[in-house]
Amino acid sequence: MNTGARPVRPAPLIGLMMVLTWVTGMIEAASLLALGPAFTAMQTGNVLFLAFGLAHEGNLPALASALSLVSFAVGAVFGARLEAAVEVRGQRWFVTGLVVEGTLILAAAGIGWGLDPQYGHPGTRHLTATAVLAVAMGLRTVTSMRVNVPGLPTTLVTRSMTSLLAGSALGHDMALGYGTGSWARRAWAVAAMFTGGLTGALLLRAGCTVNWLLLPAAVVVFVVASVHLARPSLLTGGTR
After folding, report:
1. Residue among 193, 238, 216 nearest 39 (CA)
2. Which of 98, 118, 126, 157 is 20 to 30 A away from residue 239, measured at CA?
3. pLDDT by residue (tens digit) across 73-131?
4. If we measure between CA atoms, which residue out of 72, 82, 80, 78 comes closest to residue 130?
């Protein structure tokens, strides 16, 4: 018996995780281009931004990146404790995580209501919104890791891109999914992140204030939670 096999996730759940990946692109467009420069989900970028800022190179202020890193850590710890506690009670931890995430994004939209994008010199409201979004993305990362859909971490695409190429006819790596058809899911994950970022950037180009970047993202997260709640078939594989 292969007890180490990964659980098979139903197609509707994979679709919902794709939508959440799109949301991440939207959030990163807001945090990097309108509030930062700082990422709120992809913390590798913040580690480097912080290093460059401390070295006073590249005109990258360290404060926004440092604040995002700390807030993300808070969100990850909070998310782990929250979802584990909800799971112990036999409740739907996936839905709970999404509802809390959506509420945090909505709070960030409230903080940024009418706030003009300001790249490079964030004010107090910009930094506060960044911190709240980073908490939300720390929680989301825990949620994504608990769901564990291979190739769909929802908050970064580096591994998805690598697996896509290595497991394709070009890479021919059986260990990374060559011949399994998983390349399509990985390609869609990359496309979802790109499309979310493009949507956010276009809204900025159209002159939207911070709240109009974040409100659609919050609404989509709540919709994903509602869809999951309404479909008992998505509870298979231990995902609640």
Report:
1. 193
2. 157
3. 999 999 999 999 999 998 899 999 999 999 999 999 999 999 999 988 899 999 999 99
4. 72
Q: Which domains does the chain carry?
A: 13-231 (1.20.1250)
For the residues 209-222, what does the mean pLDDT come to? 97
Average pLDDT over residues 6-18: 75
**Residue 113: both structure tokens together:** 């209501």
Query: Whose structure tokens read 């931004």?
Result: 49
**Helix 93-111 and helix 124-147, axial crossing angle in degrees, nearest 10:** 170
Confidence label for 232 from pLDDT (cuts 50, 70 and 90): low
